[in-house]
Amino acid sequence: xxxxxxxxxxxxxxxxxxxxxxxxxxxxxxxxxIDEVAExxxxxxxxxxxxxxxxxxxxxxxxxxxxxxxxDLIFPIYDITTVETLKQKMDGIKNAIDSLxxxxxxxxxxxxxxxxxxxxxxxxxxxxxxxxxxxxxxxxDPSNLTDEEIKTIHTKMRKEAGSTERGYYNRCLRPLQxxxxxxxxxxxxxxxxxxxxxxxxxxxxxxxxIAVELLVIGAWEDLGKPHPGVAEEDIAKLVFDKxxxxxxxxLSWTNYYKPTDYSIPSTPYILDPVDPYNNVISQxxxxxxxxxxxxxxxxxxxxxxxxxxxxxxxxxxxxK
Length: 320
Prior knowledge:
By secondary structure, this protein is of the alpha/beta class. The chain has two domains: about 10-180, Beta Polymerase, domain 2; about 185-315, Orthogonal Bundle (Poly(a)-polymerase, middle domain), CATH 1.10.1410.20. It is built from twelve helices and seven strands. It has helices at about 10-20, 25-40, 55-60, 85-105, 145-160, 165-170, 175-180, 185-200, 210-220, 230-245, 280-285, 295-315; strands at about 55, 70-75, 105-110, 115-125, 125-135, 250, 270. The strands form two sheets. A five-stranded mixed beta sheet has the order 1-2-5-4-3, with helices on both faces. A two-stranded parallel ribbon has the order 6-7. Helix 5 runs antiparallel to helix 6 (about 165-170) and helix 10 (about 230-245) packs antiparallel against helix 12 (about 295-315). It is globular. The N and C termini lie close together (about 10 Å).
């Protein structure tokens, strides 16, 4: 099978256990990083009043790959209840995070993105990448959204024409996204980690972690949600089948909204199960072309897609 580091004759399950799954030391290190950064954010040294800190990302979902996943922390701020306020204060908040962490930890490679502060922190002799994301305080408990709160956020998003404004509301839904993926059986998470490992070791940076997670869940559902009898090989093989036929991917869910009530993107698409406006492969879809005479930006994206498809074809054929 086409996985870097797999031994001759080694079963896929043994390979996942040996190489891909996070071990106790790695999880302990991530947990300590989360605890120490969260404690700093809740301290009086931080000038903003943090409502609570929420573990997100691969660690929060239980889909982290050993040594290849960063730590994500989301935190609402008590007195920031509108998009306009957060937009105005975002730069100041991220600068305050930078000052706070530099005063308490050894950090390197720090950078500020639109939505978050990203850095590497040295904890107990090990470096850990951390994403820290401030969000709006618009719900009673951001880690346990009610149906009414979800509906309210979707309504607010519908009224916003700009993707940036919708992005602020999307971040409020991230804990729900973490819950949606995290509730799936361990066997599904093992395959998710395997495909993430394959994506990372093959340098397919065009496809995001969330897209991989949803692709695996979609493949499992296509198999009829068999549990626990389905083999990890069967799920993984179907994921590679989807990737080698990338242009045909159409995935959506109806747990929190009806996709037909919104504008469904052009194929291929993978709709965020908690956000009707978030096609998690939009960076591909908006450049996806089937013709020969296309702009250079589209050609560049399509070259990456074709490489992904070729590698997925090889991986698919590696299964019996």
